[in-house]
Amino acid sequence: MDGANQSAVSEFVFLGLTNSRAIQLFLFVLSSTFYMASMMGNSLTVLTVASDPHLHSPMYFLLANLSFIDLGVSSLTSPKMIYDLFRKHKVISFRGCITQIFFIHVIGGVEMVLLIAMAFDRYVAICKPLHYLNIMNPKLCILFVLAAWMIGLMHSMVQLAFVVNLPFCGPNVLDSFYCDLPRLIKLACTDTYRLEFMVTANSGFVCVTCFVVLLISYTYILLTVCQSSKTGASKALSTCTAHITVVVIFFVPCIFIYVCPLNITWLDKFLAVFYSVFTPLLNPAIYTLRNKEMKNAIKRLRNIYMGYQGNT
After folding, report:
1. What is the pLDDT of residues 157-186, one digit of tens each?
2. Would you put residue 107 in left (φ > 0), alpha (ψ -120 to 50) or beta?
3. The model's pTM
4. Which of 83, 68, 81 is nearest to 38 (CA)?
5. Residue 299 to residue 46: CA distance in whole angstroms
6. What pairing do the DSSP bridges indicate for beta strands 173-174 and 11-14?
7. CB–CB of 224/127 below 8 Å?
8. Angle at the Cα of 294 (from 292 to 300), degrees rounded to 5?
9. Which of 74, 212, 98, 111 is nearest to 157 (CA)?
10. How deeply is 14 buried, as exposed, middle or buried, from its count of CB atoms within 10 A (0-12, 13-18, 19+)?
């Protein structure tokens, strides 16, 4: 962060999403609704898994951690985006921009590793059911979460090492609604071609590698079960569909932003809004509302709350 003191730029100006008043109002209502629903849905998932003994299993432990991360995804960019929609002067401080980038990449790295851990959990549950509890023991689950945070922190610090000491001496306008590396680097007062390539290669390699590993994992799960029984294949397909859906929704925007060489501003903004506003809500909707155990646990939690209210 010492590099921030060497920059002549003290703040960055966002151009935002649109100047149309009608579209701004539409985005305000839509984004606010999805943000509140996402915060409530993910908070409910974390609370339900933590309070219900029936859900103290590896799958739900990882799901609760994913929901906790999605609370961060929702809160990193959505509140400021909603706040800035009707503002003419949309600004963020230099340190605020660097901090936002840091947490975006920490949370992104953690979520990638958690999705891989959940794929491994489904592989063991479906392909090695008799050994499930021995393999997916509490120590391994905690190790997965610790590894996710360590990898997320390392990935973010490596990314920031590329840019934190760059000189920013003039242009300070970002055609976006949040800070991220690809656009920020372009504002540096130096040749950044190699730096842009390194950042793209770093984030792009991580995104593509994790995405391919996950697709191969779920394909292997389905092929393995198909060879044993059609009934098992149907059940495995139902179990994995939710996971595959979340994986695709999470990785496609990331891959496009960091890997695709095309610089299409409106599409970048759309994917960024989709990732930060819609994706965190889809996780509790897909994992929770389609899961009978989760729905029963929510009913039990509601009954406990209603009983407590009745006694008071």
Report:
1. 988 887 777 888 878 898 888 988 888 888
2. alpha
3. 0.87
4. 68
5. 15
6. parallel
7. yes
8. 105
9. 98
10. buried
